[in-house]
Write a structure and sequence with these properties.
Radius of gyration: 22 Å
Number of strands: 3
Strand order of the largest sheet: 1-2-3
Low-confidence stretches: none
Shape: elongated
Helix content: 40-55%
Mean pLDDT: 80
């Protein structure tokens, strides 16, 4: 995940937009300011309009936001897991809720 974060931080800033030019078969990704992020000529690669749209949706800001959410979720899971492991410090009801969320058996 660190590599993905590093790559996203170094990539051309977004938002990215997909484009397809039907007349000459060009498709690709622009950076929103008219700069070209990636592209291909029809026949050079197998990039489709759907591929270009998906790649554009994965601009650096989106990836960084997903990584931030993943980091936050991992912290929550770690905290909740520690609650289950230290069962005597929490009410049985709280432990049951946490265990249900984590999909783990209640600590005794």
């Amino acid at each position: 995940m660190k590599d993905l974060r590093r790559l996203a931080e170094a990539a051309t800033e977004g938002p990215w937009e997909a484009y397809v030019t039907r007349l000459d078969g060009v498709c690709g990704i622009e950076d929103g300011a008219g700069g070209w992020v990636a592209g291909c000529l029809e026949g050079d690669f197998d990039m489709t309009e759907e591929d270009a749209t998906f790649i554009a949706a994965c601009d650096p800001q989106t990836i960084l936001a997903l990584l931030d959410d993943l980091d936050a979720a991992r912290k929550v899971v770690s905290f909740l897991s520690s609650m289950v492991r230290s069962g005597e410090k929490h009410s049985a009801r709280s432990l049951a809720v946490v265990s249900r969320v984590l999909g783990t058996p209640n600590a005794k």
